[in-house]
Amino acid sequence: MADGGKKGNMYEKFKQYKESTIYSMSNLELLLLLYDEAVKRLKMAQIALEDKKYETFEECLERTGRIVRYLIQILDMQYPISKDLKRIYEYLIYDISRVKAGRERRAEEIPRISHILSELRDAFNQAGKISGDQHIVRERSVFG
Q: Number of C-alpha atoms within 13 angstroms, CB side, residue 114?
């Protein structure tokens, strides 16, 4: 029993640490974190598909789709580039759904989707550097 309490306490401390880390991040760092997580989930989906772990495959694609839908929600549509980003994100959601439905028949699409997300991430990172954001993130990942 005492050991279970220790694990629970460690989990709570880790959760608090993770939350405090996220709350202290800049908007750019949070955006980059979303892109990193989406790319990570796509890689996990590809591995799960190769291993024929279809439930994990679908969960990873679902999580990626939720991230991309969130990216649409946070767009500030007063800027012209937001319309273009929205079209790209909508296409990615469409493509993710095709991969999910087609499984092995559409597996070659996963690296392409991942590449698009990585390119967008890199573009935002570069824009952040140019605009003088003091919190440029290298590579981060969210657990869970």
A: 18
